[in-house]
Design goal:
The complex is a heterodimer of chains A (200) and B (318). Chain A has a 5-stranded parallel β-sheet, sandwiched between helices. Chain A has a 3-stranded antiparallel β-sheet with strand order 1-8-7. Helix content of chain A is 23%, strand content 23%. Chain B is built from 11 helices and 11 strands. Classes of the chains: A alpha/beta (200), B alpha/beta (318). Chains A and B meet through loops of A and helix 1 and helix 11 of B. Chain A: It comes from Nocardioides mangrovi. Chain A: InterPro entries: PRTase-like (IPR029057), PRTase_dom (IPR000836), PyrR (IPR023050), PyrR_bifunctional (IPR050137). Chain A: Pfam families: Pribosyltran (PF00156). Chain A: Regulates the transcription of the pyrimidine nucleotide (pyr) operon in response to exogenous pyrimidines.
Chain lengths: 200, 318
């Protein structure tokens, strides 16, 4: 399933001649600032919020959103990470994969408003897996979804509440998000190449 | 295709560290209200125990159940095995039942290898202790415990750490698996035992050997005590239990010579007063109870990495 080509490790986004930068560092910052305000507006403040990033690139995004909320509201929103590897529906179609960190903030998620944060929303299967994973951890009052990029092509009835940029793409294109901290620079790029091994 | 775990030597350094880091994530599960993951839903794990075992069987059972696998326990006593059925016929029965993994303990060294390589079963075979040969998951949980205490849970964390394995090395499958795995992970192992309790060919192992416990333990970062396996002995290995205990037992006086960070381990079951005194076993340095907790996480990691995907991520060649 080609849901997450952006997790493929690769060099700098500028290295590939067919890669096109659609969001640069400034665009990403502005998008995250807007998302942070939208979360606060929707939640009527920062009370009871818990941000859970989906590894690997959802986690730094969640941390950045939490920083912005802290600077606006002066309240440190709990941030954690939620690995969905064991809940994926394609677990048995690929070799067993290494697990990524899950860390639930000390207050737990019972009765909280959980905002899942991921980099790219594509088929929706990762989010389905995340909802199942949350089910085993607690019972939030509500679950919302924030993504940096929504590239369409949903295969499940899932939508994002907060979107950095809607990016209409073709299925043969690849969207890659790089974030300083994990990668060299902040950028969202599109490559027009056919995916490796014809995965689409 | 890689799909069995028969020997600690089957694991490359990358494999072993993948098991440790996977176990580190799975250990967090013990703190959650729902201690269950769906990764092995619909898979069947058979615990095939020809020898008595409480700890290892329960640990594997808990690990498989926490990953949502179905578990079938097959013990020698009161089953067809005690009526004279051969290993082959037992294996064919398991195959007919559709087992995805067989966790096997057997009194004969090499029985899991036979099961894995004979073509009798298609399932993954995990060695849970065979004779005096190997016990790879025990070595993994020991390494995991050391890695958490001494290696900051980082890759390469056991590089250059000194581990003393003390006692009945001759009859110990734990010692052999530990020596192989710790060597893979870059630690330095010293075996300490009376000459009569060292196996033939120990000079070919990747370890140092000493007969003097007092000289070794002040330099060690971890001291692992082994049980004297009286049930496998027919006399003559040492003069008296008291003399063994005086020379090779870990007591409070010897514990006082350890470095501050040194941990004391024991694979269990321990015989208090023989290889280890009660005050050492119950001291702050002792991680013996934690080893049991870690055992479940490590066995979950092994089962997940062997069975969780379309092809196993670790293990030996078929």
């Amino acid at each position: 399933m080609p849901a997450h080509p952006q997790h493929t490790p690769s060099g700098s986004p500028d290295g590939d001649s067919t890669a096109r930068v659609v969001l640069d560092a400034g665009d990403i910052q502005r998008a995250l600032t807007r998302i942070s305000h939208e979360i606060l507006e929707r939640n009527k403040g920062a009370d009871d919020l818990v941000l859970l990033g989906i590894p690997s690139r959802g986690v730094p995004l969640a941390e950045r959103i939490a920083e912005r909320i802290a600077s606006v509201e002066g309240y440190a929103v709990p941030v954690g990470s939620l690995d969905v590897t064991m809940y994926r529906d394609d677990l048995r179609m690929k070799p067993a994969r290494a697990l990524l960190p899950t860390s639930i903030p000390p207050g737990g998620i019972d009765g909280k408003v959980v905002v899942l944060v991921d980099d790219v929303l594509f088929s929706g299967r990762t989010i389905r897996a995340a909802l199942d994973a949350l089910n085993d951890i607690g019972r939030p009052q509500a679950v919302r979804l924030a993504v940096l990029v929504d590239r369409g092509h949903r295969e499940l009835p899932i939508r994002a509440d907060f979107v950095g940029k809607n990016l209409p793409t073709s299925l043969i294109e690849r969207v890659r998000v790089t974030l300083a901290g994990i990668d060299e620079v902040d950028a969202v790029t599109i490559q027009g190449l056919a995916p490796e091994g014809g995965a689409a | 295709m890689k799909r069995h775990l028969l020997s600690a030597a089957d694991l490359s350094r990358d494999d072993a560290e993948l098991v440790l880091s996977t176990a580190a994530e799975l250990r967090e599960l013990a703190d959650r209200p729902i201690k269950k993951l769906p990764a092995l839903r619909g898979r069947t794990v058979v615990n095939l125990f020809f020898e008595d075992s409480t700890r290892t069987r329960i640990s594997f059972e808990a690990a498989a159940k926490r990953l949502s696998a179905d578990v079938i326990n097959f013990a020698a006593k009161g089953s067809s095995l005690s009526k004279g059925e051969s290993l082959k016929d037992t294996a064919l029965t398991l195959e007919a039942m559709g087992a995805d993994a067989v966790v096997v303990r057997h009194g004969a060294s090499g029985a899991p290898h036979r099961l894995a390589n004979s073509g009798w079963v298609r399932s993954s075979v995990v060695n849970a202790g065979d004779g005096t040969h190997e016990h790879p998951t025990q070595a993994l949980l020991d390494a995991f415990t050391m890695w958490r205490h001494l290696g900051e849970s980082k890759p390469g964390g056991l590089e250059g750490r000194k581990v003393a394995i003390v006692g009945d090395v001759l009859h110990s499958r734990v010692a052999r698996s530990n020596a192989l795995l710790l060597q893979t992970l870059g630690a330095d192992v010293t075996l300490v035992a009376p000459p009569t309790l060292l196996p033939v060919g120990v000079e070919t192992w990747p370890v140092e050997v000493s007969y003097d416990l007092d000289a070794v333990i002040p330099k060690a970062d971890a001291v692992m005590m082994l049980r004297v396996q009286a049930e496998r002995m027919n006399g003559g290995f040492f003069p008296t239990a008291r003399e063994y205990s005086r020379r090779y037992g870990l007591d409070g006086r010897r514990m006082a010579t350890l470095q501050d960070h040194t941990i004391v381990m024991h694979p269990g079951p321990m015989v208090r007063g023989m290889e280890i005194t009660a005050d050492v076993a119950d001291s702050d340095r002792s991680v013996i109870v934690e080893q049991v907790t870690n055992g479940v996480a490590v066995r979950m990691a092994v089962l997940y990495l062997l069975l969780g995907g379309s092809t196993p991520a670790v293990g030996g060649e078929e």
